[in-house]
Amino acid sequence: MGRPRSFDRDAALDKAMRLFWERGYEQTSINDLTRELGISAPSLYAAFGDKRALFEESVARYETSPQSVTTAGKAGTSQHEVLRAMFDCAAREYASTEHPRGCLVNSEPKLAGNRTQNRAITAALLRKVAESAETGSGAETLAAFAQVMLVGLSSYARDGANEEQLQRVADLALRVMPTGTQEGT
């Protein structure tokens, strides 16, 4: 029978997520992870498998957090409101001082599949709230627009933009959206 773990797995997973978020997958070594988590390499492998498995679990934890930008869009009842909720959440979360700046998923080259999935979720939300077939048919393009904005906001935040600066850019993006996506149309 193996010894019980002498560390909090959830706390270690949070630390790993933050390290991957801050540095990226490729720039984070096993030595970095063991030092940050305060555990030995054998303990890391026993608890999480390899670096890739730990990364994937970290990303899954990140994407299911209550602060998820994609999840924020579910509150909208029109296409405009869906994007407003996502952009407002992004401005707040990407500039937060409580964690690394920007977005883990939008910053990490290895997560193209996650970005594709998030774009599909956004398109489905936009189709669901579309008020006509015409505005619903452009949901994929509008979701791509939203993703481009979110990637840009993430990058801007990582470069040092604060919440107010991010919000101004998000507000401008909402003003230039096609008329069919505006509230009340």
Brief synopsis:
With 185 residues, the chain is an all-alpha fold. It has helices at residues 9-23, 30-37, 41-48, 51-63, 69-72, 79-94, 104-107, 112-129, 133-137, 139-158, 163-175.
Total helical segments: 11
Order of helices and strands: HHHHHHHHHHH
Mean pLDDT comes to: 90
Q: Which residue ranges are poorly predicted, with pLDDT under 50 across at least 5 consecutive positions? A: none
End-to-end Cα distance, whole Å, is 65 Å
Shape label: elongated
Q: In which range does the helix fraction lie? A: 55-70%
Structural class: mainly alpha
Q: Work out the strand percent.
A: under 5%
Q: Biggest β-sheet: count, sense, barrel?
A: none
DSSP summary, beta strand count: 0
CA radius of gyration is 19 Å
Structure description:
The protein has 185 residues and is mainly α. It is 67% helix and 0% strand. The chain has eleven helices and no strands. It has helices at 9-23, 30-37, 41-48, 51-63, 69-72, 79-94, 104-107, 112-129, 133-137, 139-158, 163-175. Helix 1 (9-23) crosses helix 2, helix 1 crosses helix 4 (51-63) and helix 10 (139-158) runs antiparallel to helix 11. The radius of gyration is 19 Å and the shape is elongated. The model has no long low-confidence stretch (mean pLDDT 90).
